[in-house]
Write a structure and sequence with these properties.
Helix content is about 55%, strand content about 10%. The N terminus is likely disordered. With about 675 residues, it is an alpha+beta fold. The relative contact order is 0.10.
Length: about 675
Amino acid sequence: MATARRAIGTFGPQTYLFAAAVGVIGGLVATAFQLGRHGLKELLVGEGNFLDAALALEPWMRFTLPIASCMAASLLAYGLTRRRDSQGMADVMEAVTLRRGEHLRVGPTIARALSSFVLVAGGGSVGREGPIVYLSASLGTRLSRFARIPMGRLGLFTGCGVSAGMAGAYYAPLGASLFAMEVVLGNFAIDIFAPVVVAAVTANFVVQGFAAGPFQGLMKGYPMYPDLPDFPTVQASEILLFLALGCLAACGAFLFIRTMALTERLFRKIPIPALWRLPLGGVFLGLISIWMPEVWAGGHDTANRILAAIPPVEFVLALVILKIVATSITVGAGGSGGLFTPSILIGLCVGMLFGFGAEILVPDAVEDPRTYGMVGMAAGLAATTQAPIMAVVLLAEMTQGFDLLVPLLVAAIAGSVSARYLGLESIYLSPLLKRGVRVPEGIEETALTTTRVRDIMREEAVWISETATFDMIVGMVKKTRKDFIYVADRAGALCGAINIHDIKNYLGDESLAHAVIASDILVATPTVTESETLAEILNRFDDPEIHELPVVGEHGQVIGIVDRRDLISVLSAEVLQNRALRAKFVMPEGATDYVEIPRGHALSRIDVPAEMIGKRFGDTDFRRKTHLSVLTLIRKGKGSAKDERLLPEPDMILQEGDALIVLGAEEAVRKLGGQA
């Protein structure tokens, strides 16, 4: 039998082609969302940009529209699709960080996206990027699964979907790539960075192509904030002010996140069905909207207006308070959408208020409070996401404010550090923590906490009955050459293990042949289960004499072993990026040998193609047609019989259920459904 483990190494050209395909999907999703939102806005609110149309509505319309949109969004999320199955950004984060990309399903994600779409278009206080991002991520994952991408790489293409969605929503491919890597993937390796950038750039080209072409005027174009003033040159004396602004932005983020958590708890305590919580929240949103419709959606148009002309301080103060309340109500009542744009608007308001105050206290140092508003956008975003690098680059791209790069960096770092000091988690990790999901930090912890025993388990445990005599044990030792023989009771449950090194001096003692049985010499041994992670079992290898652990099933029976060498191989592959592919061959008498397979090749198990079933193996011309070498044929055993492993002969008839162990180029293996 041969087994092999491949480390994720440098990706081939097909990886970048798939990344570009995911980028196209993300760009199309962003385009469709913008066009759909524009059409629905024209229908519900009126012509013009979203804010102008909202301000032109009668007060009773500004009251009723959020209620109606919340009702429609709730029906989509709860009444039609069952909310417990819908998936959003928290599910994307969980899928990537815990490598459960296969759990992202397109249907529930589309339902969540439609719910967010209706909510954003009708006055809900959330951003448009949410549904775009998690729908792009879900579709990107689906594409990679359809293409039979190995399970370990699904997280990469989910991250490509995230970066594509963000780039499509904000025309900021580099910032979107950093968002995917800093917030979602938690990995800056060049092997990861390159495909993510390819996806983001492709999505950006797709969206800009539509915005400048057939749908010009119906979609927001680049840049996202076109009405910026000419910012004055920043003086060295202002650095301390920007540091203070970062700290104040962290306080704003603290108030924002804590208010959302409090509002969610309050809504859950209301004794009404979950379906009606969001419409109830719509009532409160409607009341706020009568006076200040600027809180609608993410606040992009409102931010543009503030940056274009300095508003009164009273307006900015009221806006930041009501935006926090409105977004908290929208999310706390059960609505879903992006929190990215609201975080930017809140940071802008905090920065403007700081600028107004600094203008009074140190008038010679402040020429335009909007400079501090602009910097506050990055500081607020960094504080809420705990991703300062992403916040700086993305804001610089969106605003073309590269002249303010140093103040952006200073305030963003100060905001992120201060937020951590205040005990804030990333706004995207908080939902996972509420679920009890702990996100691993670093690639070492990720490798140990996301790899399960079943992923590296070998089904080659040697066991014997507890009543077996010593001569039977000696025969088993000679036959298998294993260091451990496991002892099972009559029901098949594990009793313990016999360490061959403990009895090797007595193997030739014939007087013990029938005088000693297995239960007399077994010792207790730690066990593991299939579902446990490597982090959970690591301490069970503390005993230097234990190099393997038995894997037990539901009823305590031995179903395999996990070897210390395999655990080290996982760390070598994931942490050190060891790209070597070695196959371990287990001989019938128990001897083993390792053979290194050429770079670019793979050893894999594949099902016999349907068109070959019933034919003689020699007639299939398998090698010429597939460019793969067949090493072994595995024939499923009948009933409880074990599978047979056979050398394929020309006259052998291929049967349904047969599998082949093949060796060849990775691309050829993937074409037949194998994992390279």
